[in-house]
Design a protein that fits this description.
There is one protein chain. The chain is α/β, with parallel strands linked by helices and 150 residues long. The protein has one domain: 3-Layer(aba) Sandwich (Rossmann fold), CATH 3.40.50. Strands 2-1-3-4 form a 4-stranded parallel beta sheet, sandwiched between helices. Strand 1, helix 1 and strand 2 form a beta-alpha-beta unit. Helix 1 runs parallel beside helix 6 and helix 2 crosses helix 6.
């Protein structure tokens, strides 16, 4: 079973969307997808209502997800760790114990734009359009991941 972790700052906007999108691309019996945040702001909280709404618009239900914080133990539990931006990357890498841990961490948009380290913008302080744009970016990246892993 391949285990994939999606990581953003608070685990209520981008990473739960990425988790929901990625889950929709794979059979549950061969892939496990989860999400986490680098900060502890929203532990136990459901995703932002705007993330839930944009996911629902595309036929995905992420309303049951709960925020959690990234832990060093996630390096042992997951094969691939996709981060949404440079800040997330630095925070995750800071917890890495060795090169094996570091090798698991990737910018999710590098799946679409190789080696560019582009950030998925955080839509939290914006309007609904930002969530729509983030959904489309993540959907394209998740399509590429699914093509590689299927």
């Amino acid at each position: 079973m391949t285990k994939i972790l999606m990581v953003c700052l608070g685990n209520i906007c981008r990473s739960p969307l990425a988790e929901g999108i990625m889950r929709s691309k794979f059979p549950n019996d061969t892939f496990l997808v989860d999400s986490a945040g680098t900060a502890n702001y929203h532990i136990g909280n459901a995703p932002d209502s705007r993330s839930i709404a944009v996911a629902k618009k595309y036929g995905l239900n992420i309303s049951g997800l709960k925020g959690r914080q990234f832990s060093v133990l996630d390096f042992d539990a997951f094969d691939l760790i996709y981060v949404m931006d440079e800040s997330n990357f630095k925070n995750v890498i800071a917890l890495a114990r060795d090169d094996k841990d570091i090798a698991k961490v990737k910018f999710i948009l590098n799946e679409v734009y190789p080696n560019q380290d582009y950030n998925v913008p955080d839509p939290y302080y914006g309007g609904d359009e930002g969530f729509e744009n983030v959904y489309k970016m993540l959907d394209e990246a998740c399509d590429r991941i699914a093509e590689k892993l299927n």
